[in-house]
Each structure stands twice: as structure tokens, then as C-alpha cells.
């Protein structure tokens, strides 16, 4: 009986479905990209308030999805050592944050009327893909621009995560995922501060 209850799946074991839904809904309406903010804010809130990585360990749908896909498609090879180093993980975090700031700036330029809305998705910060799956004529341009930028970030990190999953172990992306690095850094600082109090 005990084994049965241990194996019983909880609601959070199915959050990988939310990740698939999120990526699919963005195809039909780019404004769904805004929902991705949940995946940005929840891990930060948990690490700031609790000082732990419960989001990564329990609630991250992307981590679950990579693990699931990895059972079929991963080569299951060890990840290269340099991807685990501090300089790479924090360097990648800084790069990711600067791309995020750039996306916010592009949104601002549309907000203040300097630029027009660009209905494109930028993949891996390089490839520009026209994305006109729905009519945005009634939407405030900066709201749509943020959605395009944010969806680009989410798709890009998913693609890199999948490539890493295929080449190495299923959740190898988690080794250098910017959100994982950021929350780990927050937890280290928070726990140090708590010890010194
Ligand atoms: S490291 Fe990134 S992808 Fe992996 S579980 Fe944490 S937030 Fe999710």
C-alpha cells in the first residue's frame, strides 16, 4: 500500500503538459506568450522567499518534458565539462539577461512610437521567422511586441534544451539553464545571509 501511494502522481507531475500547451498556443495567438512570465516569476519568488530550488526540483514543466523526451531520444552521454563550469553558467546567464534587456528595449521603442511592431520570431538570437498566425490590428503594439520577444526567448531556450537533451543526458540543459543558475545564485546568497543573522 505504501509503495502505491509513493508512486501516485501528483498534479505537478503533469506540468510538462502545460509547457507543450504554452508552446502550441503561441502558434495560434502570440499573446499567450505573456503566460511565460509565470515561468520567470515563480522560480524567482520561490528562491527569494524559501531559499530553495523547489521550482526546478518539482514544478518546472520544461525540465519534466526534457526528462520525458530523453527517455526515448537522448543519447544519454555525459555533458561536456566546460558546460558545468561557473564561468560558462554565469556567462550564459549574463548573455541571456542582456538579450532579455534588449527585448525589453525593443518593446519600449514600440511603446514610445520610435519603431513599428515587428511580427517576427527570432530563433537562437539570429534567425528571423515571420509569425503572422493571428490578426493583431486591435492589439496595442507594445503588448504584441513584448509577446513576440518573449516567445522568441521561450522557443530559443526550448530548442537549445532539446538539442542538449538529444546530445547528452535528458536534463543536461538544466546544468546551464539561466533560470536554474539565477535561482541557485539567489539561494546561495540567501542561505549565507540567513546564517550570518
Ligand atoms: S534548470 Fe531551468 S529547465 Fe531545468 S528545472 Fe530549473 S528552471 Fe527548469
Descriptive overview:
Keywords: 4Fe-4S, Electron transport, Iron, Iron-sulfur, Membrane, Metal-binding, Transmembrane, Transmembrane helix, Transport. It comes from Clostridium sartagoforme AAU1. It holds the Pfam family Fer4_5. This protein has 197 residues and is mainly alpha-helical. The chain has one domain. It has nine helices and two strands, in the order H-H-H-H-H-H-E-E-H-H-H. The chain has helices at residues 2-7, 15-28, 37-50, 54-59, 61-73, 86-111, 141-167, 173-176, 178-196, and strands spanning 120-123, 127-130. It has a two-stranded antiparallel sheet. A hairpin with a 3-residue loop joins strand 1 and strand 2 (127-130). The longest helix has 27 residues, at 141-167. The chain is globular and about 50 Å long. The mean pLDDT is 94. The structure holds iron/sulfur cluster. Iron/sulfur cluster binds at residues 43, 56, 60, 62-63, 173-174, 177, 179-180.
